[in-house]
Amino acid sequence: MKPSLPGSYFDDIYRRDPDPWRFASSAYEAAKYEDTLKALGDARYDSAFEIGCSIGVLTRQLAARCASLLSVDISPLALAQAVERNADLPHVRFERMEFPNQSREGSFDLILMSEVGYYLSMPDLDQAAQRCHDLLRTEGALLLVHYVRETDYPLTGDEVHERLLANPGFQAVTDRSTGDYRLTLLRKAG
């Protein structure tokens, strides 16, 4: 079993390229972001938590649906860009966080984990699922979006989604794959 990827892995990537996955310029990423927001329907959220905000491109779009948004990332290099990109949005807060090993108190209506879960080991993913469950309010939503093609990460996108779909703490609302990425919307059970 592969261990979770450390923060230094991401810092090295962002040192080489400030937008290594082309979040700000890729047509693929733009379409995926649109699909991600579409999965939420017309819902608005009092309090949302974005795990792995990277350089803050999706953060900016998600912020339009949230009264309060906490966006976190493991890489201070990525986070600095996210803060700059969203500086005009006072209801968005940023923190450096190594989730799930670090977390915070509070409760949220929505948690977004996009392109993050497969960087974790299976035990860390289970810990992340428990933390998300604990942080969600009753009937709160957990939205997962992960690339499903081959990678060298500790887990695959499908493994992440299947593990959380099997978790009795969540109920599936939507689960679909485009062949490139999988999108699963869960609700906190009980």
Give an overview of the whole structure:
- There is one protein chain.
- With 190 residues, the protein is of the alpha/beta class.
- The chain has a single domain, classed as Vaccinia Virus protein VP39 (Rossmann fold, 3-Layer(aba) Sandwich).
- It has helices at residues 7-16, 27-39, 57-63, 76-85, 122-135, 157-165; strands spanning 45-51, 66-73, 92-96, 108-114, 136-147, 170-177, 181-188.
- The mean pLDDT is 96.
* Widest sheet: strand ordering: 3-2-1-4-5-7-6
Number of domains: 1
User: Would you state the CATH class?
Assistant: Alpha Beta
Number of strands: 7
Largest sheet: 7 strands, mixed
Residue fraction in strands: 25-35%
- Alpha carbon gyration radius: 15 Å
Uncertain runs? none
Second CATH tier, the architecture: 3-Layer(aba) Sandwich
Keywords:
33% helix, single chain, 190 residues, seven-stranded mixed beta sheet, Rossmann fold, alpha/beta, 7 strands, globular
